[in-house]
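Why run this: before we spend reagent on co-expression, it is cheaper to look at a predicted model of the complex and decide which construct boundaries make sense. The entries below are exactly what would go into the expression plan.
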Amino acid sequence: MTKNLKFSIVLALILFATTFISATNYKDIKWLKTAIDRSQEQLLAASEAYKTTQKNPRTFDKGKVIFASPKDWTCGFFPGSLWYMFELTKNEHFKTEAEYYTGLLESVQNRTNTHDVGFMLNCSYGNGYRITGNQTYKSVLITGANSLMTRFHPKVGLIKSWDNRKEWQYPVIIDNMMNLEFLCEVSKITGDKSLKEICILHADKTMKNHYRSDNSSFHVIDYDSITGQVLHKQTAQGYADSSSWARGQAWGLYGFTMMYRETKNPKYLEQAKKIATFILNNPNLPKDKIPYWDYNAPNIPNEPRDASAAAIVASALIELSGYVKIGKEYFNTAELILKNLSSDEYLVPKGENGLFILKHSTGNWPNKSEIDVPINYADYYYLEALVRYMKVKGITVYN
Ligand code: GLY
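The model came back. Tokens follow.
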């Protein structure tokens, strides 16, 4: 082979590689461009508009923005959304805003009266530390994890979710699976294995007692605080004790997928797959895969949706798709959910609805609270799912 021929072949290979392997830009995909551009516009406007309140926005209900104080379980989601937007765009402005709204939550690290410290700190300080390596964030995370650990009682073998509920002694809700991610992260940061061991105990007992034979989950399991025996299997935010509250199923899917990531124990993967089957094969799951607020809500199809549950499922399915043979199916379903959430039906028009991103979530139907509204955790998991989606597909915003 002549030198010139060799050179031409190498050049052709390089051209081929740069054409077909180089990252796609998000602007080339119409629904994704709408999703990211609208999310940026809303987050920019919201972060500027709400600064004087010194609080994180939670929801937009009955024409008003409601804010989350550091006592509110949702207070970490808005800063978390800003961190994800910084990660996506590399726009320093989002970093500055994320730092400001994260900093409002410093006092959360000392809270010992709720399991939600995981949601509150991991989404805000956790993402901030992951992205920037800021050592002050690290110290808040470690203190917060120690506060959360005080809620684990060895005799029961689980982290207690709520205090001062007259009807329950030691309630543990399926949502609590999400707070394990925080403890696993801090366990990696500090090398303290006891945090991860507690996550394993909690996940194992949740798998045993929260799940029904059809792989749906109860919302609340109440334990005897002395013997650790199950006392009640009930709901707080679902339609009935025996029903399948949509967000609860989503929390479980996300939680067991995450526990597989952290432990590589196949029993968690099996559990996540079973939950995915329950959700995706449910006869009451609408064609667009955005569930009603409860899979057993009495007036389906005339029931409010829960876009937040869909966003959590999309994010979890993208992760799960990387662990299993039928990954393509999970990934395609997540893509469909994201495309639908990015349509006019679910995406908030620019400048409207309190500057949130997604419409049509349901917070607490039995309490008649936050029904068919935008809500900060729907936005957070939607953005997380978009970040995960783009990583898998090699799509970038900034090149
Ligand atoms: N308790 C958290 C939620 O409403 O999903």
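The mean pLDDT is 95. The CA atoms of residues 375 and 382 lie 11 Å apart. Bring this page to Monday's planning discussion.
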